[in-house]
Write a structure and sequence with these properties.
The protein contains 9 helices and no strands. It is an all-alpha fold and about 180 residues long. It starts with a helix and ends in an 11-residue tail after the last helix. The chain is elongated. The mean pLDDT is about 95. Helix 1 packs antiparallel against helix 9, helix 4 packs antiparallel against helix 5 and helix 4 packs antiparallel against helix 6.
Amino acid sequence: MRIPLSVAGVLFLLYPALRPWEDESTTSGAAAAMGATAWVVAHLCAMIGFILVAVALLNVNRTAAIVFWIGAGLTLPYYGAEDFGLHAMAHQPNILDLAEDVRYNPFAMTMFGVGLLTMAAGAIIVAVRQRTVPAILFAVGFGLFLPQFFGPPALRIGHGVLLAAACVWLAWTAKRVEKIPVPA
């Protein structure tokens, strides 16, 4: 539990720190950001982070793990389109239209939003059950995952710092789930 959650925290910091911060409202800026290898690596950091949190939560709270896993399952397809799809389209002359179609598809946006809110619910379950500062910061970090997308790069990097600190701190202080005895 300690290693996966700690690694997830580092990955959540790397996600906004490595992401190219070009002006994506221009064709050249969108092509530069989305076409960069750093774009792919940064988004992969977030995706792997979501998976590692779900795995780690199995040792903290099984209900939270299941809720978080459902949220990650709903969120990851959008991240895949954002990461691999936009990267593949980065040098098309109509990248802005293509990016808008990928990012603002109503069904995809709904699934993404519900997924992030469901992961936040899983994190809140952890906070309610653990009742510790690290668990509360963990819940706050995941509760802010959706709103942070509307902030400037500095705020988004700050959110990465918050999640990194919360995940690592929680990893080393969380009360573990009692082991269920296995019949012989």
